[in-house]
Amino acid sequence: MEEFLRILTQSAGEILAPTTAAYAMAAIGLNLHFGYTGLLNMGQAGFMLLGAYGFGITLTTGGSFWLALLVAIAAGVLFAIILGMPTLQLRGDYLAIVTISAAEIVRWFGRSTLWQQWTGGASGLQGRFYKEPFQELSFLPDGRFALGPFEYINTGSDSWWTRIVAWGLVALVVLFVWLITRSPWGRVLKGIREDEDAVRALGKNVYAYKLQALVLGGAIGALGGVIFALPAAIVPDSMGRTMTFFVWTILLLGGAATVFGPVLGSMIFFAAYMFMRTGMRALAENTGVGDFITTTNVEQIGGMLVGVTLMLLVIFRPQGIFGNKKELAFNVR
Amino acid sequence: MSDDKTVTTTAASSLASVASRPGAPKPNPILVADHVTRRFGGMTAVDVDHLEVQEGVITALIGPNGAGKTTLFNLLTGFDRPNTGEWSFQGNSLSGKGGAAVAKAGMVRTFQLTKALSRLTVLQNMLLASPSNPGEKLALSWLPFLWKKHEAETTEKAMEILARFKLDTKAADYAGSLSGGQRKLLEMARALMTDPTIIMLDEPMAGVNPALVQSLLHHIQALRDEGMTVLFVEHDMHAVRHISDWVVVMAEGRIVAEGPPGSVMKDQAVVDAYLGAHHDTDLGDDSLLDPAVLARLEAEEEKR
């Protein structure tokens, strides 16, 4: 029982974890792409990685926190423009191919020795090089703070300060996305999502709208990368395809084309993911289950189950938990 | 009804002096196309030498399957690119412009396969069509007070048009829940939201039940009576004869005949286009086995 309570607490702790906020942010960006505009971006991790690099490298080379934030956003914007300009005139599938390969290219450049002095190569940028300016901004007193069973230091890597900034940013972006998607601009995006030609026939510059959505969602993805880097290091291999598919799972779990879907999806996803892994580990250690699920396999099985969840969602519940089925069914034409 | 009659005659009277031949000049052309060709590989889908569309009347574009009507539509509205040719609308060249620019210029089209946006509501479909909505600019979209007024006015206008098409009770439903005929109506209503100068309808009657065809025809006539120019592709000859003021006939990519609906159907070129030049030749006739007769028929075919 005590063990079970520990697992529950640990899982609940994930709900407000900085990583959860980072994925929520990336999913909000992807929601602008896929949920509202129908753009198949299969490389959101590339945007995140570029955002993280922009942030980390600016701070390591002596820039201020705010400049670093701007550079991160600019990196996302630039990446979106480079990817979008040639592909958005083509059919949707091409963007998927281009984004997934471009994200891989970014990762391989990051882990190569070519720009090692800035990116740190395969081992990445250590957090100690860039965290200080961020933590200096904290107005929280020294020490620790406990909220129920959740106790973290006030200012540090896995701290209350990181959580406040991360979720504050998420809240701001949610508000912004809510405002723009309920506007006539958001209505045009939803029209494009369904039938570009119909929207074009009404005199709208479809290409410009798609590029705007791609750039905005990409910039938000880059911000997600910044949040992801705040409590950790920037390691290219931890921001690859797996990350992209986690973001997709989160978006489809919460519900595409909803304002809070990505946020709640991220919270539910990480709580469930943690519960599943710690649960399995506890079972493997304490019961006969350990004979066929060893503790060393738990991570792999967890990853597989995420993939299965993604498939089941797409097939049986494309609208996710909070989405509108009439609006989001994949097969209706 | 008698009113209808008089308007029809005035609209048609402007065409009274126009010669019934392909490429005939009109007194007041709103759309002029020259040397428009479109080839798909070795096949020439469209080869229109000269076409003028008279302002303020209903022009029907007819022809057998594969005549190139829809392809011509796509070219003129910027949804396809021609191999050669130029065309102008109200005196301004539109060749090479994309679909959005053509629509902005006042030339708005509908599609053969209806493109009602089924995952938006009927009202949202209508509002989407409103031109120059400030809220559609990303920079202003997050400040509702800048576009609320425009949105309210547009909603009012949309409901008026929907009422005219008897779709006002469906305003809050998803367009996907409408019947095929209602979608055709919605697409036409949506096109009207853009205040077009010329409306181009691609088979507006296809798949619509006969009862609705009547009301659709009335709507199209009403548009003409309001001063709009209508160009439509249609297979339903009754509809064409009933409402059009001028008929353009295409076959194998070319315009083979033009004329008022009453007489153009009797044109030999039209009969040939629809039924084949030798529709009255008896294929069971033994004389067809004679090489001399065959050669004569082939020579006739060449000349055509």
Tell me what the structure shows.
The complex is a heterodimer of chains A (333) and B (304). Chain A has 333 residues and is mainly alpha-helical. Helix content of chain A is 69%, strand content 2%. In chain A, helix 3 (44-60) crosses helix 11 (206-229) and helix 12 crosses helix 13 (261-286). Chain A has a two-stranded antiparallel sheet with strand order 1-2. Chain A is globular. Chain A has helices at residues 2-15, 18-37, 44-60, 65-87, 92-111, 116-119, 131-136, 160-181, 184-194, 196-200, 206-229, 241-254, 261-286, 298-316, 325-328, and strands spanning 144-147, 150-153. Chain A has a single domain, classed as Orthogonal Bundle (ABC transporter involved in vitamin B12 uptake, BtuC). Chain B contains 12 helices and 10 strands. The model of chain B is unreliable at 1-8 (pLDDT under 50). Chain B has a 6-stranded mixed β-sheet with strand order 6-7-8-3-9-10, with helices on both faces. The longest helix of chain B is centred in the middle third of the chain and has 17 residues, at 148-164. Chain B is α/β, with parallel strands linked by helices. The two termini of chain B are 43 Å apart. Chain B folds into 2 domains: 2-116 and 188-266, Rossmann fold (3-Layer(aba) Sandwich), CATH 3.40.50.300; 117-177, no CATH class. The chains are: A mainly alpha (333), B alpha/beta (304). Chain A binds chain B through residues 176, 179-180, 183-188, 190-191, 193-195, 197-206, 212, 216, 326-328, 332, and chain B through 77, 79, 98-101, 103-104, 108-111, 115-120, 124, 127-131, 133, 135-138, 141-144, 147, 151, 174, 176, 190-191, 193-194.
